[in-house]
Amino acid sequence: MEPLKEMFNKRFYTQFAAEFKRVDKNFKSDQFIKEMLLGIEPLSLNERMRKTSHTLKNYLPPDYKKTITIMRQVIQNTPRGYTNLVFPDFVSIYGHDDVDTSLDALKHFTQFGSSEFGIREFLKRDFTKTIKVMNAWAKDKNAHVRRLASEGSRPRLPWSFKLDEVIKNPKSTQSILEALKADDELYVRKSVANHLNDHSKDNTDFMLQVLKAWDKKHPHTAWIVKHASRSLIKKGNANSLALFDFEKDPKIRIQNFKILKPKINLGQNLEFAFELVSEKTKTQKLVVDYIIHYRKKGKELSPKVFKLKEIDLNAKETISISKKQMMKDFTTRKHFAGEHFLEIQVNGKVYSKLKFSLSI
Predict the structure, then answer these.
(1) Distance of alpha carbon 13 from alpha carbon 17, whole angstroms
(2) Helices 45-57 and 86-94 sit at what angle, rounded to 10 degrees?
(3) Are the CB atoms for 102 and 69 separated by under 8 Å?
């Protein structure tokens, strides 16, 4: 599979420059393309994006407002996707002397890509002003703008720095979450849930208080509450389990737990099966997960919890569960040869453990 950084290649820059030339006749497209391709090969995905922002500065008008006017027109005719993050990245670097123009530009740009990273530089420099604007965005008619209000203010947005202001004062984004807690767009609700899941790592009590107060009869709100609680449920947090009536102290046992092939190669399935046995005289609501302890480059192991299923296990009932998982490399995970471990977890408690060997 082609590396993600190859999104920023000669073909992209040729089309990109042509759009700028169409809007700004003074744009020197050939020189821009040549400068962009010079030394780009070893650069990572984000390094290529940052070089694009820096290089654009040299080919656009020195007047910031004029530059933003050009960029607002250009982005409307560029392919939607990650490469459009160049526009908010540019604003995050060069837009701090004209915050009003910059925030309005980020609102526009997010409708064609995402301004979730660009907005964070403004939150870091002037949190009060920026979060006030984002509260207004949470009520915008455009779903991309509403999502930006939540996603951009996440305490622990992946691929970005932590927002210490939000971690220290989680209530600072609560009004945004309240405005979006029953949003019609799943795209927005996912962001709200992820925002709350971030809070669960630093401000667990606050996050649980918010969820307890929400009307979970509304299906959209109920979905957010469940998705936001995933990390705490995996950890067996008693208060989080109670939100969904999961058994706090399950009475079960695991039997006939086996890995079908204890020795597998990269690209093959890890297959396992077990029986879940109730030792209680009433129905138990359970969330069943499995944990793979991946071998890292050294001798260390890195555990990863995977969701298996949620069940209502009847009194003294026995059910059979099986699962296949492909062991292959992803952009987010590289496998290493050696001994791995597999565990079964029920309501946050580990019950059984087996080992298997992976060959590369």
Answers:
(1) 6
(2) 60
(3) no
CB 185 within 8 A of CB 143: yes
Would you report the helix, strand and coil content of the chain in percent, each value rounded to 5?
Answer: 50, 20, 30
Structural contact between residues 349 and 331, judged by C-beta atoms closer than 8 angstroms: no
Which value, to the nearest 10 degrees, does the dihedral of the CA atoms of residues 69, 72, 77, 82 take?
140
* Integer Cα distance of 176 and 146 in angstroms: 9
Pairing of strands 252-259, 284-295: unpaired
- In eight-state DSSP terms, residue 6 is G
Q: pLDDT by residue (tens digit) across 319-355?
A: 999 999 999 988 778 899 999 999 999 998 899 999 9
Give the per-residue pLDDT at 2: 67
Backbone angles phi, psi at 302, to 5 degrees: -125, 110
Euclidean distance between CA atoms 234 and 287, whole angstroms: 8
Model pTM score: 0.84
| Residue pLDDT, tens place only, 29-41 | 999 999 999 999 9
CA distance readout (Å), 33 to 50, 83, 155, 196, 338: 15, 15, 37, 42, 46
Residue 56: how many other CB atoms lie within 10 Å: 24
Which domains occur in the chain, in start order?
Answer: 4-243 (1.25.40.290), 252-359 (2.60.40.10)
Mean pLDDT of the chain: 94
DSSP string of 200-250? HHH-HHHHHHHHHHS-TTSHHHHHHHHHHTHHHHHHT-HHHHHHTT--SS-
